[in-house]
Records
---
Amino acid sequence: MSQTIIKDLMPKDELLASGHLACPGCAAPVAMNLVLKALGPQTVVTLPACCWSIIAGPWPQSSLRVPLFHTAFETGGAVASGIKAGLAARGDTETTVIAWAGDGGTFDIGLQALSGAAERNEDIIYFCYDNEAYMNTGIQRSSATPWGAWTTTTPTGEPEATPKKDMVSILAAHGIPYIATASVAYPVDLVEKVKRARTIRGTRFIHILAPCPPGWKTQNDETIDLARQAVQTRVFPLFEVENGRNWRLTVDHADEPVAPYIRRQARFKHLTDEQVERIQADVDDRWERLQRRIDCGT
Amino acid sequence: MKKVMIGNHAVSWGVQRSRVEVISAYPITPQTQIVEELSDMCADGRLPARYIKVESEHSAMAACIGASAAGVRTFTATSAQGLALMHELLHWAAGGRLPIVMADVNRAMAPGWNIWTDQNDSLSQRDTGWIQLYCETNQEVFDTTVQAFRLAEQINLPVMIILDAFFLSHTSEPVDLTDQEIVDEFLPQRVAQYKLDPSDPHAFGALVRPDAYMEMRWQQQEAMRDTLRVMPEVDEAWGALTGRRYGAIEEYRTEDAELLLVTSGTITSTARHVVDARRSSGEKIGLVKIKMFRPFPTALLRSALAGADRVAVLDRNISPGHGGIFAEETRSALYDVPLEDRPTLFGYVLGLGGRDVTPSVIEAIVDRTREAEAPERQDLWVGVEL
Ligand SMILES: Cc1ncc(C[n+]2csc(CCOP(=O)(O)OP(=O)(O)O)c2C)c(N)n1
Ligand code: SF4
Ligand SMILES: [Mg+2]
């Protein structure tokens, strides 16, 4: 039986150096590595405060082999807009400018600047690697934290009380040319989406689920498996949206129950079976809404 | 070419002549006409810049930071609440050594809402690492705008050009718009020493540990020290081309003066009239205008003020819990002057929130400073207590 080696399918550029400072088992550098492979060296990255500010390495080092501009937490969309304009002002319209932000920098404090950039349809790709909390500052909740989760600001006695914000719908409402969700467990799908995004002009948004062992209270070697399970349980479906419409799934999604996915993460260990059922109901509800959008093509 | 124009448009024309490449701005009274005029200039081709119409001042500064890091000449303008909203990013611009130029139209901070002039907005940003240049006339506004880009790019620090709300921003005066060829000679296209360049990748702004952070702040301070030398050189180079020069401070009729007024902004023009009138009746009085507030021209001020008997500093601002800010900084500049040469300093707080500072207000200050035995306090509130 012939075997497909995923590594052989990946672009050969190595733009993330070894020796970066992520925790063992962190999905965030895996995501960056795949994205840079897909984009190639003619790329400029701006990085608002997040775990990646540390992963990238302290001065005078950098784990990226492309230009990197560290910036204030809430400014990803605006700084990327400025970099693009600056390069274009001197005739460089080819370099891909990306913002690379966490869920806090995207869903919360950076939402205004991102919305501004999206509404102006700036020619940038905005990546959100989503580990579902403020990890850099020690696991505080964000509006991407799922219902029921423990974080250091949502203790088990009073866990996260609201469901995860539907960021993709917010971006879709801006009508930007391209939105995708992606997963480190589906590298071929991820790289294809990024390559596709690179050929499109205007604001593109790519949302990548990035499991975090210390924040999710999981084992280091579970990360990729968890990311896959998030897709197969439909907790984090993989799809694309063009111009705010044409919603389309990009991989087959099994219909696995969420309970095993939830139960292996100790950030949910305080939840009762009824509460896990509630998560299942919410996942089903979101999936149904997604299906309706796919069916009617809007 | 001479044109009659409001101060706000003098800024816009300075930006046009400087061939700015990226503008990013957000409206706020009384600054808005600066960026409206720039939109027209970009639309009708007078200025082929990219104009990013952001959703806040915060993003205006963030976009300027990005564009400046990409190596091009950038500009924004704001006032009061808008400037305050930018605060974190002002540090980012200065610490990142980005030569961004911004005009701030001095407007009082709310609450209560007040659109009229005072200096608390810009002075609240004193320690963000921006060079601050205060202007007195619309001509000076235009000239300072062009000079600011050369200074910023030579020293790798951002520059704030400051003009009074309404007294300059909305008041028409003739302005000599220096020909483009002359400006081009004075201010060639920016060549960034460091920039975001995929063919030469570097990281900017990464984590710096205690063993190196301090050296970076020291380099910033060295750049500020260099500015004390470079700002007058830039001013002189412009003067050689246009005949107009301003200095970091200006001494006006200070020869053998016993009493010196210290002013900034448009109050200076009013004070000049008072000095002229008093001089013609034989009083030994003069005026020192502070144009450059950061870096603070300590040595220049010391030599301008030492030897006078009394100094009256007119502050259109207040540091609550301390005093008028120009007075406090001037007082500390005088500390090293030997006692026998050290003037007594009177700090007057006046004109906040756009309250008019008329010649008779300044006349009363002159008389009081002359007659009082000593200042009762470090801040004397004109029109409130006096
Ligand atoms: C204005 C501001 N507020 C707070 C912080 C502190 N801060 C730095 S990173 C961070 C959390 C980042 O969370 P997220 O964007 O989800 O990225 P992660 O660290 O989880 O990868 C916070 C709160 C900051 N740098 N700036
Ligand atoms: S805390 Fe989580 S997201 Fe941050 S580096 Fe560690 S594993 Fe990665
Ligand atoms: Mg996070």
---
Amino acid sequence: MAKVQGVVVINEERCKGCELCVVACPADVLQLQSMEVNDRGYHYASMVNPEQCIGCASCALVCPDGCIEVYRVINK
Amino acid sequence: MDKNDIIKEENRVYKRPKLLTDNIMHYCPGCSHGVVHKLVAEVVEELGLEEKTIGIAPVGCAVFAYNYIDIDWIEAAHGRAPAIASAVKRLMPDRMVFTYQGDGDLAAIGTCESIHAANRGENIVIIFINNGIYGMTGGQMAPTTLEGMKTSTTPYGRRVDLNGYPLKISPLFAQLDGTCYVTRQSVHTPANTRKTKAALKQAFQNAMNGLGTSVVEVVSTCNSGWKMTPAQANKWMVENMLVQYPLGDLKNTVKK
Ligand code: SF4
Ligand code: SF4
């Protein structure tokens, strides 16, 4: 198991599908939904490779709409 | 470990600042304003200035900033934010007073107020969002528009023989004796976002310590006005804007 494990929680209704979190993620975790949209019609971001997340919070830092919360554990 | 075991309060490494309201921002997807708003909220919280901060909002896209950051605000007439900030700070010297202005507001109609407030060394912070365009009114040329850059009023690109040169406002601030800290930052990567946050923190502390005017320019994108995707706009900004407006401190008289 990976030593550092991260999870991001994305507020899908706030998300505007700008894709900046996808670009900022160093671990290729995030993608915009290709079919699904939120109530305002945006293709929101979600974790497509959750096991790769290292909880670095890069995505959350660059998200203009403050949609992302990040959790991280270090497995002993 | 299962996802639900990780999503716990004690494992949280990043959360929305409390001062950011739940209102959905009216900014376009990917707009730099959202990131800077978030950083302002974080810094105010971290410095414990929630009850002491007064923001002066501009005319421009950020005119509705009061909907998003839960502090006291005054909405200024176009370009006049530094004049109002000067008055507020003089009347209430224990408050942290900052202006939040775009390039149309600060570098065009408000040049006089900005330069003179800084020259008087008012103990305020000027946050200057420079995206090289008038965003709110439909993407017209601003003083900071780059040479050759296409806008709705320079459809063939800005010509310096006709429209003058891009105005580099931060170096003007830096040469005034009233400023203690002038820096140029951006928020297009996580690392730059962290640096901008540190710059805002120092600026806010300078204002509270009565050291003079601090200016934090944030070179930003207006992807709608530039007619690009947010990711393309960031790339274009690095390749073009940052050449004319290089990042870094232009002046810092309070270095430890
Ligand atoms: S926390 Fe880091 S690794 Fe995880 S999704 Fe965000 S940017 Fe990617
Ligand atoms: S950066 Fe934020 S608003 Fe943009 S796609 Fe990611 S979660 Fe959505």
---
Amino acid sequence: MDKHFGTSGGVGDEIDEVQWCFSQVKGAIDDDVADADIISTVEFNHSGELLATGDKGGRVVIFQQEPESKNQPQCRGDYNVYSTFQSHEPEFDYLKSLEIEEKINKIRWLPQKNAAHFLLSTNDKTIKLWKISERDKRPEGYNLKEDDGRYRDPNTVTTLRVPIFRPMDLMVEASPRRVYANAHTYHINSISVNSDCETYLSSDDLRINLWHLEITDRSFNIVDIKPANMEELTEVITASAFHPNQCNTFVYSSSKGAIRLCDMRMSALCDNHAKFFEEPEDPNNRSFFSEITSSISDVNFSHSGRYMMTRDYLSIKIWDLNMETRPVETYQVHEYLRSKLCSLYENDCIFDKFECCWNGNDSVVMTGSYNNFFRMFDRGYRRDVTLEASRENSKPQSVLKPRKVSSGGKRKKDEISVDSLDFNKKILHTAWHPLDNVIAVATTNNLYIFQDKLN
Amino acid sequence: MHNSGVLSQEKMELDLESPSSLVQTEGQLRRSNSAPMINGLSDNSQVFQREVLRCRRNSTTVVNRPNMIPSSPIRVPSTRLHQIKQEEGVDLMNRETAHEREVQAAMQISQSWEESLSLSDNDLEKSASSSPKRIDFVPVSPAPSPTRGIGKKQCFSPSLQILVSSNGLTPSPIPSPTRRFGRRSQSPINCIRASILGPIKRKGEMETESQPKRLFQGTTTMLSSDVSNLADLGSCHSPDGLLDGSLSSICSSTDSPGKMEGVSPSSSSNSPFAPLQDLSPK
């Protein structure tokens, strides 16, 4: 069951033995961050060769990993820009007098079936299917047009020739193949491709819709938690995901910290859950902010499909799908913030939505925090590490030094006190290569790529 | 428990704000809508009461952020749950209050319209009264218009690391993908005018203005919204060999949305309405 990554060793992998090194950083250096450049989603494709990012300006940038060079074996290739396109534009809903942001909320890759790559990208209202394909030949020698497209003067055409294909510089085309619009009253928070590769779901605050990839003008509504009397509304949907293997199963999380698993075989409408996962509240930790901090910001199945992981404001919880009463593992991401919740409420940081991800063999989970810190938890060896994504540590192949935050009292050397954390530098989006120890970590407007040290 | 006066004020605020976030309301765009009132709140009322609302917005923010932990745990207005409840008009009485306000606002509107439209010698005076502010924003239906989106390819050259046109020949001088693309509202007229001058750069002018994208794909068309989107993606260099005297003939042979002969190229003007005599190169 244990898989190996790179040359880091065998079954006895401990997280301490994995040393993370800086590999690359993408994005502008200046501190003045343009709003449009704020990264809003990061996603590897199924092979890990492509890495897609979406930003607040509605653009998608896809990086491609260079093949390993023969000169330097065992040195992974760099990720370079492969394609970039404007996915969504701002729109205006004149009925409600509201601007619809072009920010890309989520990107999901479809499994690759032919030479082209397909991905779904979504903003608050509209999901689009994009085809990314390569072109390396161009037709030349038309009779009526010059090669640059201008029409030739008919008088100069004296002979007839057959156009031929000539090689050209590789060009990557992105074209929108489907636009799935107008199915969500509220803001779309998640999309998830089904393992059947034909359908996908999209969820907003109150509803989940099931789409067929080929059909754009309608979708099935499979979950609707909007009550007849809005007074009775107590929670909203925050995230949703399809099971990686079982095409009939999906989950959705709520703002109250509960996860519902639904089976589409039970009925057409999945308002009644098949399983209900919720941990009873710890009375010691109860506070005015309990409900806010228990709101789940991300939910992810493990690759195996046996477990799922949820992220709330302060912790990561791993759930066994066979046990609904409580999580099997809980990891505190930044417990030192528990006493600061009042100020975090004041500056709205308490509403930040952190994502989380699994590594390829489900042995390690990762999530972001503040001050450009991110955290990894090794499930097997119960160890965790805090690392930082910053330009100071950006010499190629330089090993990242673990960080520590002191929660009070004596501050040891090299520790950072809670009060000096920069809460504007938050890492909300992280992604782990599905097959290798390569991670992508997004700060506000920069994308960092780290990899484990190869001997 | 609730101060209904305060709550209705809050509600009025929250109803008008985007559901996405309470925090990001400052730059929110509003547009006057002359459509009949279909939903609860009239759009007209929002526009006309804008000045008043701006003050209220700030005060509401203060109200919603008590410095100490409020005694009632129910008041958590920044959560999505609360925003949705407010939008849907939870309280019947508040809904009626809001409706009353709309009706009154509508009456005010019709009165002020009558005043400003009536012929009188006091026109200057009347124009000072509230009139709908013109907002330069193109309304787009929630469904994408058929001229944009589907079928439009965007091509990128990994070796050159720039966007290219779909025939692969004419690279466009786009800054790195991490920077914002062009200007969304750039009029197609600008592109065409600048192209007559060719690659000569004028001081202070951005590359994107001097080298607008040219369509070499036959008769399609600078007229469609394609051009504005192309302008968003930036502009193309035309191959140098074409830029001598043959420019004018090139321009006249391509489709253009109007009479292009005699139009001087724009220098660094952003406005499509700049008078012709100002457009000579500096």
